[in-house]
Design goal:
Belongs to the TRAFAC class TrmE-Era-EngA-EngB-Septin-like GTPase superfamily. EngA (Der) GTPase family. By secondary structure, the protein is α/β, with parallel strands linked by helices. Helix content is 28%, strand content 25%. Bound molecules: guanosine-5'-diphosphate and magnesium ion. Guanosine-5'-diphosphate binds next to helix 1.
C-alpha cells in the first residue's frame, strides 16, 4: 500500500501552500458551483521512485467547531491515518500556544514527525528556526512554501521515513 503523509498545523502557517508545492501544479479542484474553487485535501505525490498519498488536514473541517476542536480533530486524523506527519509552523512568528497544543498531541503518537518551519523566504531569517526546538519535536527544517525553498529537504525526509 502507498504510504500516507499528513500535513498538520494551526491556520495560516502555509499548509496548503506546501501541499501544492509537493503535489505540483494541480493546485485546486473546482466545485460544482461555478466560480468556486476549493483547496484540495488529498493527492498522490512522488519523490525519486517513491509514491505516496498526501493529506492536507487543514482542509478537513468540522462545522460549528472552535479552533481548538478543529485542530484537535485534524491532528487526530494525522495520528490515525499517516505513516509520516509534517508539522508546519510559521517562522515569522514565535512559538504559539496552538503550536504547543499540536506538538503535545503529536508527541503522544509514535509516528515520525517532520517539523517544517515555513515562511523562511530569506536566509537572513534562518536563525528563527531554533526557537522551535522548544516544541520537543526534533530538528526544525527551514522552508518557504511560497518560494519553493527547502521542499526537497522535506521530501528527502519523507522518503527516508516511509
Ligand atoms: P494554511 O492555512 O496553513 O493552509 O496556510 P496557507 O497555505 O493558506 O497560507 C497562509 C498564508 O501564508 C497565505 O497568505 C500564503 O500566501 C502565506 N504563505 C504560505 N507560505 C508562505 C511562505 O513560505 N512565505 C510567506 N511569506 N508567506 C507564505
Ligand atoms: Mg489551508
Amino acid at each position: 500500500r502507498k504510504g500516507i503523509v499528513a500535513i498538520v498545523g494551526r491556520a495560516n502557517v502555509g499548509k496548503s501552500t506546501i501541499f501544492n508545492r509537493i503535489v505540483g501544479e494541480r493546485v485546486s479542484i473546482v466545485e460544482d458551483i461555478p466560480g468556486v474553487t476549493r483547496d484540495r485535501i488529498y493527492a498522490n505525490a512522488s519523490w525519486l521512485t517513491r509514491e505516496f498519498r498526501l493529506i492536507d488536514t487543514g482542509g478537513i473541517e468540522l462545522a460549528n467547531a472552535s479552533f481548538t476542536e478543529q485542530i484537535k480533530m485534524q491532528a487526530q486524523i494525522a495520528i490515525e491515518e499517516a505513516d509520516v506527519i509534517i508539522f508546519v509552523v510559521s517562522g515569522r512568528e514565535s512559538v504559539t500556544r496552538e503550536d504547543e497544543f499540536v506538538a503535545r498531541m503529536l508527541q503522544k503518537s509514535n509516528k515520525p514527525i517532520i517539523l517544517a518551519v515555513n515562511k523562511i523566504d530569506d536566509q537572513a531569517f534562518k536563525d528563527s528556526i531554533y526557537d522551535f526546538y522548544s516544541l520537543g519535536i526534533g530538528d526544525p527544517i527551514a522552508v518557504s512554501g511560497s518560494h519553493g525553498i527547502g521542499i526537497g529537504d522535506i521530501l528527502d525526509e519523507i522518503v527516508q521515513l516511509l
